[in-house]
Amino acid sequence: MTHHDPRAGLTSDQVASLLLDSAPYLSCDECFERLDAYAEAVLADPRHTDVPLQVHLSACGVCAQEARSLVELLALDG
Ligand SMILES: [Zn+2]
């Protein structure tokens, strides 16, 4: 019997369909709330991914710019 465990993570198909959806998955407020933790996680592990956040960043130039400056700030700090 095969049972798909939803906690096992997204399949690449699911990720692809999320990325194809141009509608932001998170609101900008939710995105901003997560940016600090995301930037720190990316600096600690460049392979870190946060799909909902990255979908939002790919669709929202304002938050993408904010994320970039945050990562640069943290990088200078470290
Ligand atoms: Zn946004």
Describe this structure in words.
The protein has one domain. It is 67% helix and 0% strand. It contains 4 helices and no strands. Zinc ion is lined by residues 28, 31, 56, 60, 62-63. Zinc ion (ZN) is lined by residues 28, 31, 56, 60, 62-63.
Describe what is shown at a glance.
The chain has helices spanning 12-20, 28-44, 51-59, 61-77.
Major sheet summary line: none
> Helicity, in percent?
55-70%
> What is the radius of gyration computed over CA atoms, rounded to a whole number of angstroms?
14 Å
Low-confidence stretches: none
| Overall pLDDT level | 82
Number of strands: 0
Taken in chain order, the helices and strands follow as: HHHH
Terminal residue distance? 49 Å
- Portion in beta strands: under 5%
Counted up, domains total: 1
Offer a few descriptive terms:
binds zinc ion, 67% helix, mainly alpha, 78 residues
List the helices and strands and how they pair.
Layout: H1 12-20, H2 28-44, H3 51-59, H4 61-77
Helix pairs in contact: 2-4, 3-4
Zinc ion (ZN) binds at residues 28, 31, 56, 60, 62-63.
